[in-house]
Amino acid sequence: MKVLVTGGLGFIGSSIVELLEREGHEVFVMDDVRSGDRNNVNMDDNRLYEMDILSEQVEDIFREQRFDAVIHQAAQVSVSYSMKNPLEDMACNVNGTVRMLDLSVRYKVKKFIYASTAAVYGSPVKPLVNEDTVPNPISPYGLSKLTGEEYCKMYHRLDPSMSITILRYSNVYGPKQKSTGEAGVVTKFLEAMKSNQAITVYGDGKQTRDFVYVEDVARANVLALEERHPFSLYQVGMGQSITIEELIMSMSTVFRVSFTINYEPEREGDIRHSKVDISKIVNAYNWRPNTTISKGLEKMRHYWGWKDV
Questions:
Q1: Which superfamily does CATH assign the domain made up of 177-209+240-275+291-304 to?
Q2: Signal sequence span per UniProt (predicted)?
Q3: Which fold does the domain 2-172+211-236 belong to in CATH?
Q4: Sign of CA dihedral 22, 93, 62, 59
Q5: Residues with catalytic roles
Q6: Residue 31, pLDDT above cutoff 90
């Protein structure tokens, strides 16, 4: 298939690009390189478009290439940034998504995959959420991603011929990740450990997160390409949660470092507990996360070329 990956120079997007290419797809990337990195992919310049997805030239590319599928990963992904810059968050996450949907319908894209987030749930009453849990975002980021989902539903109603799949990610981590975004805490903690600085934890450290390794997320996206249901929504995570303090202990064990923790007040917009029910995607795709948190951290240790400090 001829596939466009927006945000394909980013942490998650580049992992999707690598897997797509290994499986023989013809892959194109569109990325404004504000948060992505050109070194994250090895790609010919004629298949890499370094531009904002809202720029005027984007339509020319859709007209010329006639993509079979669009995997829309480009986004502003920081909750804390969205709290301070809600208009910029909306411009990227809402306007950018609408632009991609509109061009995809106009130029007869067969498959559209939208990267969403468990942040759409806010702080749910029950810690385990499924696809039927009513969204109640508590940050501009969660709201903008939920709005993108609603636009996916609307465009599906306007043109049911384009198959749309929404993937709600839990906290994705792994190599090439920067210290911003929903699961950037893993990289942020590693940077602190490597420089012998105190680890900053917002809150009491008892808050829980569902951390899923980036390669497992990439595999879910590639499997979604083959789905031909007119419209589908799945959660992508480990289906397990750990506390932030447990994460730090696991990192200390894998990276063999000692640490100190500096506790700060909780940040506005941060959720208390998060764990996603993955039974729906397991049943639909026979997809399961293969990477435990300890195995994922070992892979990050190898990627960083970590030497004991």
A1: UDP-galactose 4-epimerase, domain 1 (3.90.25.10)
A2: none
A3: Rossmann fold (3.40.50)
A4: negative
A5: 141
A6: yes
